[in-house]
Amino acid sequence: MIEAILPFLIAFVSLGAFELGRRVRDKVHVVMPYKDPVTLLLFLASLSPVILSLAGHTIIEPTDIWYLSFVIAFLGCYSLAYVRGELDLVYVNVHTLISERFPGGAQEIKPVVYYWDRDGNQCIQEQSFREILKSVFLGIRSPLRLDVGLVKRTRPVFVQKVLFPMVTVDAIDVVEEKIEETQIKKWIFGFKVRSYSYTPAPSCIDTTQQWLVSAYNQEHLTKELTRKEAQLLESKTSAMSAFYAKSADLLVEMISDRTPGAEIYQDVTERLAPREPQRPPVQEKPEPPKKGIFRKRKEGSE
Q: Which residue stretches of the chain are H helix?
């Protein structure tokens, strides 16, 4: 008789676990179930007979067919519904235009899980275990300002790692991210609450980004060129100093060795070359005056 109704009980437990997983995720707004405190409590309760058996207190045999069927049906359907449940999840693409660490700019893709509380305020669910505990059990919410309806542009991002399938994310470009931290008091304890604000990027911001990045790169290249020119000038100065030092050493060495150069040899050779003796100039005798007819007549009259 028990074996006859066992399939119906398993089906009932499966449907109940499926609906429970969907509702739990809709309330806690957590991406991964192992970070959800409610899910961890449910898993702990379903596995409590095994824990008690290991501690020496046996209530239900862990190998019983009823118990095994219940655990497999509950955990499987709950996990499937939890993972496939609806969740308001978007990815924001935070641009870092100018920084010392990333001279050419950088992009940081962040998941943002948002929801609205009972008062109609937009909130963000941080995915750390401590923030989830504060939100689920203490009702401490983190405010968010991200108007998804004002998004003018999204950017598809493709990421693929070794041994992992390719992941495609349709990210929202934002130009500003503000994170403010405040202190609130719950009963007698103080808690820190962070509020987030994102400004979606307009569709015409690519030109501005490229201009800023180009200006920063130009400044970086100018500084690098100045540094290279200073190094070159220093190298030239060192080379000239070394040349003058070597020239002075060579001159001192030549003087100490008394080794004349080629010009001195040429001057000595010219001075010692044999020369022809110089003769005195020859004086020419004056020619006697010529005697003519008129000269003889003049002499006879005298």
A: 2-28, 37-46, 48-54, 65-84, 129-137, 206-257, 262-272, 293-301
